[in-house]
Design a protein that fits this description.
This protein has 307 residues and is an alpha/beta fold. The protein has eleven helices and eight strands. An eight-stranded parallel beta barrel has the order 1-2-3-4-5-6-7-8, surrounded by six helices. Helix 5 crosses helix 6. It comes from Amphibiibacter pelophylacis.
Length: 307
């Protein structure tokens, strides 16, 4: 099966042992995998066994996630999070991952002072630098002070660290309704990771709606109702010169109950759609037959939404 270079799956999308999930991704043709700390610490054999499993799979780590609520804290809370970050960075390095994902803080204890937030992000980046790790700072759409990628980019520029950039997540962009034209203001070399997913309804008016949808019912690109917007996002990233990795961060309770190969094949169909139908499109957006068939089996599908 032809390899899907530049695209990877997130382990959170699949159920079962780590080795089985990695094998399903490999059978579907993926060349990389986005891993979480739980994959390592939750492995029956421990962190070393999990790292060995990833290496044996031949899949390249896209990145390692996720450091939460790091920036903006003071005193003992800050020192606590520094300790957590150090442990996360050590696991990231053990995997051979070159990217650590850090999400914008949701803590009510976090400062809103952008200079304070930027200083903390600079400190995190300096902690990662000796390990050869880049930090991708992602704006959660329910973040307390930073909930759009434009705000994340402002802090990254303020922090001014060579290994600090941003992570782009399509779900949070669509949930926040951030204009895609704002991507033109970002240095593409400072986009360290792009995570793609869609969902089945047009809007998420409250933070609670966003969290519930994000954590239980994302779908692959081409399966939701934002396919045109997602295509425009990928095209915009391509136009500004982004040449990095794409990963599918698809939290979905339904997919956790399906056979691994069934879910991995849905991800493969989405990748073929993005590569052949979107990035090389010369006609109105359509879904390829394989993805149309898959999409038609998913609850919440709107008949006739696509050609």
């Amino acid at each position: 099966m032809k390899r899907l270079d530049g695209f990877g799956m997130d382990t959170i999308t699949l159920a079962g042992p780590l080795e089985a999930r990695l094998a399903a991704m490999q059978r579907a043709g993926f060349s990389q995998v986005m891993l979480s700390a739980r994959d390592l610490v939750g492995h029956p054999g421990g962190v070393d066994a999990a790292v060995a499993a990833v290496r044996a799979s031949g899949l390249r780590p896209t990145g390692f996630q996720v450091l939460r609520d790091f920036e903006g804290l003071s005193d003992h809370l800050h020192h606590y999070k520094v300790d957590i970050a150090q442990s996360m960075l050590q696991m990231c390095a053990a995997l051979g991952s070159r990217v650590l994902l850090a999400c914008s803080s949701t803590s009510r204890h976090a400062s809103s002072d952008p200079d304070k937030l930027a200083r903390d992000l600079h400190k995190l980046a300096m902690m990662a630098l000796p390990l050869g790790i880049r930090v991708a700072y992602e704006a959660l759409s329910w973040g307390r002070h930073v909930n759009e990628f434009t705000q994340a980019w402002d802090l990254v520029e303020r922090a001014n660290a060579p290994n600090l950039g941003i992570g782009i997540d399509s779900f949070h962009i669509f949930a926040s309704e951030t204009p895609l034209d704002a991507l033109e203001q970002i240095d593409p070399d400072k986009i360290f990771l792009v995570q793609l997913s869609d969902f089945m309804w047009q809007d998420t008016p409250t933070f609670e709606d966003r969290m519930q949808t994000a954590r239980t019912f994302r779908v692959f690109p081409g399966e939701g109702v934002h396919s045109e917007a997602l295509a425009q996002l990928v095209l915009k990233l391509d136009a500004i010169g982004y040449a990095g990795d794409y990963s599918y961060e698809v939290f979905n309770d339904d997919y956790q109950q399906l056979p691994l190969d069934t879910v991995a094949e849905r991800a493969r169909a989405s990748t073929l759609w993005l590569v052949h139908e979107v990035l090389h499109r010369s006609a109105p957006l359509t879904l390829p037959p394989g993805l149309r068939a898959l999409r038609g089996t998913h609850p919440g599908t709107h008949p006739g939404a696509y050609a």
